[in-house]
Amino acid sequence: MKFHVSAQLEYEAKTEGVLILSVQALRTARQVVFDEQFTVEPYLQSEELSAVNGENRLIRMEVTQPGPVRISYNAVVDNHYLQKDYKNVDQPSIAKMDVQVLPFLYPSRYCQSDKLYRLANHLFGEIDSAHEQVVALTNWIHDNVEYQSGSTDTHTSAFDTVTEQTGVCRDFAHLGIALCRALTIPARYFTGYAYMLKPADFHACFEAYLGDEWVLFDATRLAPLNGLIKIATGRDAVDTSIANIFGEIDLTSMQVSCTVAEGQFTPIYL
């Protein structure tokens, strides 16, 4: 299924500084990027970088003088969503897991799995299948946490979300990751473009490592799983920020879009 994704960002620079953006769709085995365009007005010296793990794509731009900065990204992305039955997939032991997966078992800044160990095992520890555990915890988050725009901020963690029982997509994702890790299931944060998301915006959810592959889950159920275009993955939102700003540079406008470019779309949810 082909999608057209776009992001239009406008900043006002009050001083010199640096912008590091992560808005480009990833190139993966299941996601092919076509007709990609990235423009900046006025012209700024920029370079494309790869994150430490070699997967996430970053654009670093040097802002040399005060004034407006307008950024436009457009691409056509062919997304091959894999739908299969994971119920009977054998979960590898930690002793046999690939070393690259292990960091996604550890607590992180926003995903304090060590603090949620007792809760996770009380609610989901008796479920035999790792896949069914993730399905159950995803359903539990959806049923017990209220989605409410503006209810949290950049300091809100998974532990806070359990306490306050409200949040936005980022908080739903952090809680899902923390509960997975508390059950010794590797999990990572996912940011992307989302088809059918209203209002249109960047979206966050999570992936759990089941068998020998990463499987996508979204406790908000605000967008179909096969309508999500991956931008970045990481331990939590720290690793996948859309923008990192150094200097007095303010975001003044943002427009995000994800539409079907080609094909007949049938939404798939959890």
Q: How is this structure best described in words?
A:
There is one protein chain. This protein has 4 helices and 14 strands. The chain is α+β, with helices and mostly antiparallel strands. The protein has 2 domains: 2-80 and 242-262, Immunoglobulin-like (Sandwich); 94-239, C8orf32 fold (Roll). The strands form 4 sheets. Strands 3-6-1-14 form a 4-stranded antiparallel beta sheet, with no helix packed on it. It has a 4-stranded antiparallel beta sheet with strand order 4-5-2-13, with no helix packed on it. The radius of gyration is 19 Å and the shape is globular. The model has no long low-confidence stretch (mean pLDDT 94).
CATH class membership of the largest domain: Alpha Beta
Share of residues in helices? 10-25%
Radius of gyration: 19 Å
Tell me the fraction of residues in β-strands, as a range.
35-45%
Name given to the CATH architecture of the largest domain: Roll
What descriptors fit this protein?
4-stranded antiparallel β-sheet, about 270 residues, Immunoglobulin-like, 14 strands, C8orf32 fold, globular, alpha+beta
What's this model, at a glance?
The chain is of the alpha+beta class. It has helices at about 115-125, 130-145, 160-165, 170-180; strands at about 1-15, 15-20, 30-40, 45-50, 55-65, 65-80, 145, 165, 185-195, 200-210, 215, 230-235, 245, 250-260. The chain has four helices and 14 strands.
Write the layout of secondary structure elements.
Layout: E1 2-13, E2 17-21, E3 31-41, E4 45-50, E5 57-63, E6 67-79, H1 117-124, H2 130-144, E7 146-147, H3 158-164, E8 166-167, H4 169-182, E9 187-194, E10 202-210, E11 213-217, E12 228-234, E13 243-246, E14 249-262
Parallel strand pairs: 7-8
Antiparallel strand pairs: 1-6, 1-14, 2-5, 2-13, 3-6, 4-5, 9-10, 9-12, 10-11
Helix pairs in contact: 1-4, 2-4, 3-4
